[in-house]
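Hi! If you just cloned this repository, the fastest way to understand the data is to look at a raw example. We've pasted two of them here, unedited. The first protein comes first, obviously.
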Amino acid sequence: MNKIYLLTAMLLVAAAAMAGVPAPQRGPQKLAHGLPVPVVKPATNVSDAGFTANWEKASGANCYTVYTYIRHKAPADEIYYFYNDDFSGFKYGSIESPFDIGWGWLDGYTNRSNWYVYGAYSCHGVFGLYNKKSAEQNGMLMSPMYSLQNNNGKFTVTFRAKTTGTATVAVFATEYLMAGPSYALGKVGKVELTKEWADYTLELDGGIQGCYVELDMVGGDSNAYFDNMTISQPMKAGDEAMLVCDFVETGDVSSHDVATGDKVAGDVYWYQVASLKRLSSGSELDDSNYSDLVEVKQEGAVCALKASAARAYATADGVVVENPEGADVAVYDAGGREVYASRDGAEKQMVVLPSGVYVVKVGYKVVKVMK
């Protein structure tokens, strides 16, 4: 399913449904969905470490897309972290010899889904952005949709960064538009990077329910490199916020295991599922609307999932799978076909693959990788 629709309409509908308010419809909407909506079933295997999302297969579908959300209700006055990533998922390359990711979704690199980038590098534990890569657009990083309306829309972004020459970075809250440039909803924080690593804290405003945090390259002549990024906001007891934590496209299955090892007090997970049919070429033929949201409840749990340290990431040759727990490994292409399987428990596996989008399953953990 084309995730651009999900960024505009579906995520806002989900946020509004949980908040009990009508959702705005923005951007071009796909009006015709030929597949039936999957019947979603209660989650099983619920623990603090994860759960299994379940649904009934839909007629005509050979893939499914699953979105998982966190609805957080502050149990006390607190600082809530919407994002906290050391970028350890960027395994390939270095600052001296960066691995060019290009543009697209950073699922499999970032520790939560739905980050979008234009002009990215992987630098082995460091995330890089192009500067002056093309005449049309410099590097840009956009977060998933967040509910940043609490604390009068004021929030904080921190990161560690450097450049190899000169580089200026702008950070701000924005509404995503299908056409035209982004615009700031509030204060624009600007930082001129230096050649030495330094820590930066930006106090921003303009946060609303259903906004994104955007980071743009706006000056200088050299690439920028980032580490240890956080997005946080003070919340009063009883304040609520919503965010995306996981997206996956599965094969022809009726369940998906979701890891929730970073769960904190006040987090409640929800999920919804859509049907998808792909041709053997991998192109999308048809899809469905998304199901209603299902709350993940502890009651009825039958066992617990162990948090997994498994990872998968793209390289120039294919996909590397890190499997420290010795689990079974399977790789599926965009059409849901299994293109690789291993049950030998090898801790590191190199899968040679052409360019494309792949779903990697390591035990119960599922990662979407774009090569």
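Ok, and the second one:
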Amino acid sequence: MADEGSDDRSQAPTGKRLQKAREEGNVAQSRESQMLAVLSVFILVFSTTSATSGSSFLHHMRGLMEHFDSIPPDGALLGQMLRQAMREGIMLMLPLITVGGAVVIVFSMLQTSFLFRPQALVPDITRLSPLSGIRRLFGVTNLIELLKSLTKFIVFGSILYGVAKGTLRVAPEAERWTVPRLTSELISWFIYATLTILAVQLVIATLDELWTRFHRVQKLRMSHQDIKDEAKQDDGDPKVKAKQRQIRMQRARQRMMHAVRQSTVIITNPTHYAVALVYESSADKAPTIVAKGVDELAARIREEAEKAKVPIVSNAPLARGLYTLPLDSEIPPEYFQPVAAIIAYVIKLKTPGSRAGR
């Protein structure tokens, strides 16, 4: 692509440009959407596992605090109780950490449509440029990230402060609560806080997803010269040319099949050649070749003719001779007599009360 300033790139990126960017690893990937997915699964897993694990963990911690003064000074029992509490804490957090990591991996793969680039594992020396680093540091992307971080810090901090304030208000009463009730209250406060954060994160993730997609397209915009250069490359690409030829052939065959349905008669070899002729008695012109083919294409022509109830006449020498003529051309005088005989036969077939057969 031409190395031009972003001001000149006023055109939307072409499909080839977008595909090339994707192959290079440039895909729209929102971190906030990943965080939303992790937080959602986190709440789901926590709400299903915390009642048992959390109660057991709090039971050990309360027992440790209540019997702290009676623990022997050698520290053996204290160490055993601490290890047990740590095991309970790990069992409480392990499902959350495992599921959270799995969600990040799966969600990243979904966002990138399972794109894997081994080249991305190789260090890019060009990214070590101090000038490029300074530009990235003070760029629009980092400014947006800073604003997002500040917004999340203020909003999430306010939510957690409100929950903590409410928790401290009932702290004196909590000393008299049983372990199941204390567990239930803590879980309720935690889920309330995370659900509130989840609602805010949903708004942030939606805006970030839209911004990420918009910013990617903006960075990939092209100048008029870029588009011209790409078109020149495509014109010289053998794969593109082959694809264009294939498309032209498919369209030509579609037009021929349509012409077969409108033709007057199909003259066959009977299996290898098929030529479709159109004759209009009102027009001052010879019969015209509107479709022709050999082998597979000839079979398609016969099949299409049978569907449209177009008469099929077997005449091997005539079919081979007509096949050599250009498509959409009128037949030359040397074929007038045999073709006229066939058309007369076809007209007789269509005449009511006729006993002629094929």
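That's it. A detail worth noticing about the second one: The chain is about 65% helix and 5% strand.
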